[in-house]
Amino acid sequence: MLQAIDSSVRKSQLVGILETVCQELELSDTQYKTAESRYKAVGDWLFSSENALFHGAEIYPQGSFAIRTTVKPMGSEEHDLDLVCHVPKFSPTAQPSELKRLIGDRLRDNATYSSMLEEKSRCWRITYANEFHLDITPSTYNPACARGGELVPDKKVNRWKPSNPRGYRSWFEDRAKLQPRLLLHESHLVEALRQVEDLPTPTRFKGFLPRIVQLCKRHRDVWFSTKDSSLAPISIILTTLLAKSYAFCIEKVPCENEFDLFIEVFRHAEKFIDIQLRNGLWQYCIWNDTTLHENFAEKWNHDVRLADNFFSWHKQALADFANLPSVSGLDEIRQSLSPVFGETVISKAMSSLTSSINSHRSKGTLAVGTGLGLTNIRPNTVPIRSNTFYGR
Fold first, then answer.
1. Which residues of 352-377 are buried (b: 16+ CB within 10 A; e: fewer)?
2. Cβ atoms < 10 Å from Cβ of 239
């Protein structure tokens, strides 16, 4: 039983390291506020136009920017931040290319934005060098969606496609609010053991579901960096599958600790892909539950390599994640995490951890409980001097 407790404590400490990794990957609070002020300034310029179509329009974040699951791109300091420019007065029967042109023309009228502007297939990009770039997608209302959905251009900008960015954000946040009931924390036996040997305070993820999404997106980016990145699963697919799996696991899958829940959420994610055999071909559907007829896996049905690569990556990522608790010692931890999440990010995260350990050591507040690993000085713990981890 003590061995099981020790394993859970190790995993709790590993969760603390992964939390640090996520903090290295995401926008800082300062960066987020800067990006927010800049996209609002873009909106102010757009909607001060004399063109009546822009009256009542709005600009707002979507995707990872909206749900706080941003991940720094591989080999770049610039975050990709997605925005929607919603123009409800624009007719959904008109061509989406016309709305896109109106937005682009207005942005070009601003000397600052004009020099930073780049046209993409379905949006306009404003790049703030070495910080982030804002991708602004035009939209109008969707008369066929009773849930407040919108219409956005498809990649070729020759037709509208249904979407619901704000509805999706609410859908994701509702799932993220679900709190796991971890068996280890509820065990009377653990409470009895605490009277003998004090357990370290568990280090929790700051927002469990968003952290899972960030870690999985980062593993995807690292894994596909040596392969054809065009075949990597898009972020909305990972986010949707993980959110559905998280709600399922919270209700159906008992877990002792947060790390085990992380593994189970990732393990069960592929269950939420609707796969059917039609006319001898596999058809894949990952539905957007907030609007009708939006299949995030639509491209999989035109290029089977996309599905094949998802399942290959999922299998490898599951093995990599499950192996993480088997190592101990800072050097082994670093060597194990680097190929999974990238050397640069892990170096920064481990440096932060090492600094924390050294700070506690210098203050005489670093200790080890028998079979428990690192903690602060408490009853029934022994002070340590060496730069160790997991009690070694």
1. ebeeebeebbeeeebbbbeebbbbee
2. 23
> Do residues 138 and 99 make contact, with C-beta atoms less than 8 angstroms apart?
yes
- The pLDDT tens digits for 125-136 are 999 988 899 999
Classify the phi-psi angles of 390: left when phi > 0, otherwise alpha if psi is within -120 to 50, otherwise beta.
Answer: left
- pLDDT at 188 exceeding the cut of 60: no
104 exposed, middle or buried (CB, 10 Å; 0-12, 13-18, 19+)? Answer: middle
Cα 264 to Cα 389: distance, rounded to the nearest angstrom: 25
Please state whether beta strands 274-278 and 160-163 pair in parallel, antiparallel, or not at all (unpaired): unpaired
In this prediction, residue 189 carries a pLDDT of 39
Specify which residues 141 forms β-bridges with. Answer: 150
- DSSP letter at 84 equals E
Candidates 246, 242, 261, 245; CA nearest to 183 is 261
Contact by Cβ (8 Å): 169, 82? no
φ, ψ of residue 270 to 5 degrees: the values are -70, -15
Is 95:151 a contact under the CB 8 Å cutoff? no
Between the two ends of the chain, the Cα-to-Cα distance in Å is 20
As a whole number of angstroms, the distance between CA 140 and CA 88 comes to 5
Sequence letter at residue 106:
R
Tokens 């599905």 locate to 307
- pLDDT band (50, 70, 90) for residue 336: very high
Structure tokens at 361: 């050591």
What is the CA 344 to chain-centroid distance, rounded? 18
pLDDT at 156 over 90: no
Tens digit of each residue's pLDDT (9 = 90 or more) over 295-332: 999 999 999 999 999 999 999 999 999 999 988 777 88
Is the distance from CB of 256 to CB of 8 less than 8 angstroms?
yes
Amino acid code (one letter) for 65: F
Q: What percent of the chain stands above pLDDT 70?
A: 83
